[in-house]
Write a structure and sequence with these properties.
Blueprint lengths: L5 H6 L7 E6 L5 E9 L3 H4 L1 E6 L2 E6 L16 E4 L2 E5 L3 H10 L4 H4 L15 E9 L2 E12 L2 E13 L5 E6 L16 E4 L4 H11 L5 E10 L5 E7 L3
Length: about 240
């Protein structure tokens, strides 16, 4: 698969929706992940990321303007031992609970499907980063309707073992803006991972559409020690 510029993938799409990037830093030291949310409605844009234990959750920036919390208030990131779970919805909790029961990443998502927000039927995108014993691997998943038909759910899981330094994969909910919004298609896009945590955070944030971007989470996990650094950027300050 051709490796693409993450900056170009972001700047060339006014509305990828919600997106997950996972990969390895250029120096091979860190497991890297980023999660961002965008919004077109006032309700979607009225959000911030806040820390919640070792993870994060979404929260209304102005509670008085919150219209419908379903599908937009959830925990995008949770940590279970050496596993970091990143998703675009409350399936974060589903994966967390599944892993606790001894299920695999894919097995835990079998009880879930795309979001019930017709006519978009937004895909549920998820990732699992596993850092243990000085090694790193990751899985990514998308649950989507069959070309907008809610009677059929398509399930795709992708695995990446011994990932290469400076390389990552990017999956997002929508191909682009539209009505209805067209769901992401194909494999996660192979992209470059560059710079330290601050440079990478700046790269992602500055290349997201200025009108539609809402919040960004970035984490660099030391593959050798499991220690991590986190950055959170909110448009609403």
């Amino acid at each position: 698969m051709e490796q693409k510029s993450l900056a170009a993938e972001l700047s060339g799409n006014s509305y990828p929706g919600r997106g997950i990037v996972v990969g390895v830093s250029e120096d091979g030291i860190y497991a890297v992940t980023a999660y961002f949310i965008m919004g077109r409605s006032t309700n979607s844009r009225n959000r911030v990321f806040v820390k919640d234990g070792e993870g994060i959750r979404t929260q209304a920036f102005d509670p008085s303007k919150m219209e419908d919390p379903s599908l937009i208030i959830y925990s995008p990131v949770r940590v279970l031992g050496t596993n970091t779970i990143v998703t675009n919805g409350d399936q974060t909790d589903t994966v967390y609970e599944g892993l606790q029961k001894g299920q695999t990443f894919g097995q835990s998502l079998r009880c879930r499907e795309f979001e019930p927000d017709g006519p978009n039927y937004t895909p549920r995108i998820s990732a699992l980063l596993s850092v243990r014993n000085g090694k790193f691997e990751y899985r990514m998943s998308i649950l989507k309707s069959a070309d907008g038909d809610p009677s059929s759910c398509e399930r795709f899981t992708f695995g990446y073992e011994n990932p290469k330094a400076g390389v990552g994969h990017f999956i997002h909910t929508y191909v682009s803006d539209g009505n209805p919004l067209p769901s992401f298609e194909g494999e996660p896009t192979k992209v470059d991972i560059s710079g330290d945590i601050d440079a990478f955070t700046k790269l992602v944030w500055t290349n997201l559409n200025e009108d539609n971007k809402v919040s960004l989470f970035v984490r660099y996990i030391d593959i050798g020690t499991g220690k991590y650094e986190t950055r959170i950027v909110n448009k609403n300050e």
